[in-house]
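In this section we walk through a basic example: taking a raw amino acid sequence and producing a predicted 3D structure, encoded as discrete structure tokens. The instruction is simple. Fold the sequence below.
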Amino acid sequence: MQELKQSAMKKLEIIVQGEQRDFVIDLLERAGVSGWTLVHNLSGKGTHGAHEGHLMFNEEDVLVMVITVVPEELAAAILEGLTPFFNKHIGVVFTSDIQVTRLAKFKGPVAQAG
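The resulting token sequence is shown next.
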């Protein structure tokens, strides 16, 4: 059996108000990410107080997290694109150094074609 090769990547966990999720997803799509995961109804407490993870009126009234895994250079570009957004809206981005297998799954169509 062939050993799985590990490759360095960045994981971005972007937490925003539900009404802002389309902006974040659009930014990721335009940046060329190969995929993302959306987690609804987050609960937690931060500088803006406590947030309940249940729907009050609709999905725009809760916090969501968009998770993606990208190469380091793309992470920098995404963070640069999010900077003006976070100057006006609440939210946070957690950035982690991670290792992935099957690198072609995270680099999009260009990497898969090569």
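Looking at the output, two observations stand out. The mean pLDDT is 84. The longest strand covers residues 7-17. In the next section we compare this with other chains.
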